[in-house]
Amino acid sequence: MFMSTATLRILKTAAVSIVASLTLVGCGKQQQNQAPPAPEVTVQTVESKPVPLELTYPARTFGSREVEVRARVGGIVLKRRFQEGTRVVQGQSMFLIDPEPVRARADSARAAVAVAKARAEEARRQRDRVLPLFEKNAVSQSRRDEAVSGFEVAQANLQSAESQLRMAQLDLEYTDVRAPITGLTSRETLSEGSLISTDQASSLLTKIVQVDPLYVEFDVPEAEAAMIRSSLAPANKSTPPPGAKLVLEDGSEYPQPAQVTFVDNSVDRSSGTVHVRAVLPNKDAQLLPGQFLRAKVEGIQLSNVVSVPRKAVMSGPQGSFVWVVGADSKAQMRPVQIGRGLGNNVIVTDGLQAGDRYIVEGVLKVFQPGTQVSAVSAEEAARKSQQAESQPAARKEAA
Questions:
Q1: Are strands 183-185 and 204-221 parallel, antiparallel or unpaired?
Q2: For residues 289 and 214, is the Cβ–Cβ distance under 8 A?
Q3: Does residue 26 form part of some domain?
Q4: Which residues contact 169 (CB under 8 A, 6 or more apart)?
Q5: Residue span of the structural domain in which 392 resides
Q6: What is the CATH number of the domain that holds 119?
Q7: Of 119, 137, 155, 365, which has the fewest Cβ atoms less than 10 A away?
Q8: In this predicted structure, what is the pLDDT of residue 276?
């Protein structure tokens, strides 16, 4: 039986369609049998090591010494010998109080000393005459005692007169009021021509503040104060003491750091904080007492702690957790306890151990615990990224 040409053409087309369908079915089954590749994630290995802390606190500056300049003798202020607000050196003359009344008292005391010396000399001669006569029984016991007592009283009067003279001389010196320390002066509280008395309320003339070095004082929580105090302990003298970088109100950083030297020995009951002081060289008086700033204490370390990037820590209904990759390359959820933050990192106080691998990049590729992943280190991921970026450039150069 013969078939027409059209019939043969139809049969050939049907055969090709059947073969194509069978081929597609076979490919589909093969694709179903092949599992998708494991997602690639970047991991880091947990290391327990010292972690430096940067502790920042509100602070205020104080003069290392603040002294009230007071008059030690009464009288009229004749002259001010300094410019208000300027620097004075120790021993520099600052005020002159009218010395004439004090000089007159000193002259009177000097004359009293001369009289007392003359009387003491007369009493000595009288004693020296009586004592040999008493040994020869030429005078009575009462006469001998009278001569000896007269000499002793004269000696005591001389000492008293000399003391009065010394006090008058000191008062004369005190009429020239000198700077007790080197520092910056404040304004005068009594002008020239004012009458000064020696009572505490009216004897204040001005104030001097020593600004080199300058004190930077701030309050820290009790736990952090213990770390700072430990760094200042004699056992840690081999390491430099902690420093404090100063940030001014305008946000700029003072070029020279202060050095922490003192931690108070008690906790403030009202605030629960401990007072800390740092010392700052301030030769050019760029900072003044009373300024507010922020102190960043550096040089404090936490030993043997686990620190991980913040982006590696997830939050869920049960708390914080990280994704860890086990030896079987499967991702698992690991609950963790979070401590204080350290910039872009955070301290993990519980949940991770040295040697654990945790995911830092590609967390969104993990859908559920037990997901098979392809773990690469951060160095390897960076190298692959550089290679991927360099390939388009190489193709452009080749073209």
A1: antiparallel
A2: yes
A3: no
A4: 106
A5: 41-51+305-398
A6: 1.10.287
A7: 137
A8: 95
Alpha-helical segments (H) within the chain:
5-33, 100-135, 141-174, 222-231, 378-398
Cα 225 from Cα 271, distance rounded (Å): 13
Residue type, 326: G
Q: Record the pTM.
A: 0.66
Q: Distance between CA atoms of 344 and 360, rounded to whole angstroms?
A: 12
Same domain, 226 and 262: yes
210: tokens are 């020593």
Q: Which is it for strands 40-45 and 357-361: parallel, antiparallel or unpaired?
A: antiparallel
User: Which of 222, 228, 218 lies closest to 302 in space, CA to CA?
Assistant: 228
Cβ pair 357, 330 in contact under 8 A: no
pLDDT tens digits for range 255-296: 999 999 999 999 999 999 999 999 999 988 899 999 999 999
- Which CATH number do you get for residue 319? 2.40.420.20
Examine the fold and report which residue of 252, 283, 301 is the final residue of a domain before the chain moves on.
Answer: 301
| 216 touches 278 (CB < 8 A) | yes
User: Structural domain tally of the chain?
Assistant: 3
pLDDT tens digits along 365-392: 887 888 888 888 878 877 877 777 776 6
Same domain flag for 314 and 273: no
Pairwise CA distance, residues 368 & 372, whole Å:
10
Residue 189 near residue 210 (C-beta atoms within 8 A) = no
Same domain, 262 and 311: no
| Cβ proximity of 373 and 330 under 8 Å | yes
Q: Are residues 343 and 317 in the same domain?
A: yes
Beta bridge partners of 96: 79, 176
Do 169 and 117 fall into the same domain?
yes
- Copy the structure tokens of residue 266: 């008690």
Query: Is 246 domain-assigned?
Result: yes
Asked whether residue 109 is domain-assigned, the answer is yes
The Cα–Cα gap between 261 and 242 comes to: 8
DSSP strand E in 71-121: where? 75-80, 87-88, 93-97
Q: Return the number of other C-beta atoms located less than 10 Å from residue 161's C-beta.
A: 21
Sign of the alpha-carbon dihedral angle for 163, 166, 167, 168: positive
Residue 7 lies in a domain: no
